[in-house]
Write a structure and sequence with these properties.
- The protein is an all-alpha fold.
- The protein is built from 21 helices and 2 strands.
- A two-stranded antiparallel sheet has the order 1-2.
């Protein structure tokens, strides 16, 4: 009994050695919390760009592999790349608006070409994080996160209605799609709001499972043909999707990496405070960004989209206080194992789009509210309200009326045609130009 108690205590030490039997359930909890969030962005991108079923499976596999690699590198730093703290990394929803825009304009090869360049440049952001951190206070990062959330709603609603395929065959918004989406959403919310423990952190996964079962019962919605043809083991082929380099795509991706670096600072800081009751060091923050950046370059080679720390897993760390590296080693290995199995990727691609839409709308809502929460960390006085309001007005306004840029050069249209990019640039510049004001909220 004493030995078991001592082993349990090892879960709460960074270099603790809990038994594998105790570590595995904790690791499984983290895998369940991140699984759907990790595979959904590549599935959405594949569908938006009308990629083949085989390519969709490859993207899903690569998402698990790059998530596993990034998680392990952050846990065990190499030459300053990685933070040395536990966290679970996966493909980031925040990049979705930019990835969609680049992919629609130039194809998926341009996504990975711009990601390769941006990942390299982002390494230097990590190197100088201590000097540039002050340029990204909550008013800047909060506005950006809020803009990301708002820009993703159209994607969620489109999927709830059946996706682009349903728009093509005239079934978009049909009753069966509404049922699948709303049931999935209801179950996800019920688990997240009223559940406890595993039930709460796995709300999105449970919602998708329930929606999936209903879709199977309806018939004619779930197609297993690609699953039956997929193999059991496969190694990613480097440069399968190719690389294409377009200046405007690179600019947008670099700016997005800068934005995501700010988000990473918040997640790593939360991990350090929640798991170790201390502030994160500049070395840890810089290492996290550098690790994330070089893994973005690796992802560009194997087909893995950009990653970031998963907030739901940060929340688990803060709640359970489990920080033993052995737990997160298991998480990384499980992710890698799933990534090398095409059957897993093929099974994930059978999830109907209305089910994905009903589940992901909760994620996008959470991103939006995180932005509002960040904004509230600074007093919403006249100066700050005006800066945020102008940034959102111009960003969302131009995105809604893109023809206003029709006489601009194509590069300008592409960069400033994104509400996210406009909002980021406006709030960043105004925050520097307008004199600081620490007066209370008005």
């Amino acid at each position: 009994m004493q030995k078991e108690k001592t082993s349990s205590g090892e879960l709460f030490r960074l270099n603790g050695k809990p038994s594998w039997g105790q570590a595995f359930p904790q690791a499984l909890q983290h895998v369940l919390a991140m699984l759907v969030g990790n595979i959904t962005p590549p599935m959405l991108i594949a569908s938006t760009l009308s990629l083949s079923a085989a390519d969709q499976i490859i993207l899903t596999q690569a998402a698990m592999i790059i998530g596993g690699i990034t998680t392990l590198l952050q846990l065990y730093p190499v030459m300053g790349f990685g933070m040395g703290l536990p966290n679970v990394m996966g493909v980031a929803f925040a990049y979705m608006p930019i990835l969609t825009m680049i992919g629609t304009q130039y194809g998926i090869s341009a996504i990975f070409g711009s990601q390769l360049v941006a990942g390299f440049i982002s390494i230097f952001i990590g190197m100088f994080m201590g000097k540039i951190r002050r340029f990204f206070p909550p008013i800047v990062s909060g506005t950006v996160v809020l803009s990301i959330g708002l820009s993703l709603y159209q994607t969620a609603i489109t999927y709830m209605g059946g996706g682009s395929a349903a728009q093509g065959d005239g079934t978009f918004g049909s009753g069966k799609f509404w049922i699948l989406a709303l049931v999935t959403l209801a179950v996800t919310l019920a688990c997240s709001l009223f559940g406890k423990g595993y039930l709460r952190v796995s709300g999105m996964l449970i919602g998708i499972l329930v929606g999936y079962v209903i879709a199977l019962c309806m018939g004619g919605i779930v197609d297993f043909s690609d699953f039956s043809q997929a193999g059991w083991v496969s190694v990613p082929v480097p440069f399968h999707f190719g690389l294409a380099f377009h200046p405007d795509a690179i600019i947008m991706m670099v700016l997005m990496y800068v934005v995501q670096a700010v988000q990473t600072i918040g997640d790593v800081s939360s991990t350090a405070m929640g798991g170790f009751n201390r502030e994160a060091t500049d070395k840890e923050l810089g290492g996290a960004i550098k690790g994330q950046s070089i893994c973005g370059m690796i992802g560009a080679v194997i087909g893995g989209l950009p990653t970031d720390p998963y907030s739901q897993n940060v929340g688990l760390i803060c709640t359970t206080k489990v920080v033993a590296k052995r737990v997160f080693l298991i998480v990384g290995v499980v992710m890698l194992a799933a990534g090398f199995c095409p059957k897993f990727g093929a099974l994930m691609t059978t999830i109907p789009q209305p089910v994905l839409g009903g589940a992901t709308v909760t994620v996008f809502a959470a991103i939006t509210m995180s932005g509002i929460q960040l904004l509230n960390e600074q007093p919403m006085n006249y100066r700050n309200k005006l800066i945020v309001g102008i940034a959102l007005a111009l960003g969302i306004g131009i995105d809604t009326v893109p023809d206003i840029l029709q006489f601009c050069p194509q590069l300008v249209q592409n960069v400033f045609g994104s509400s996210l990019m406009v909002s980021f640039l406006v709030v960043f510049l105004l925050n520097i130009i307008v004199p600081e004001d620490d007066s209370p909220a008005t």
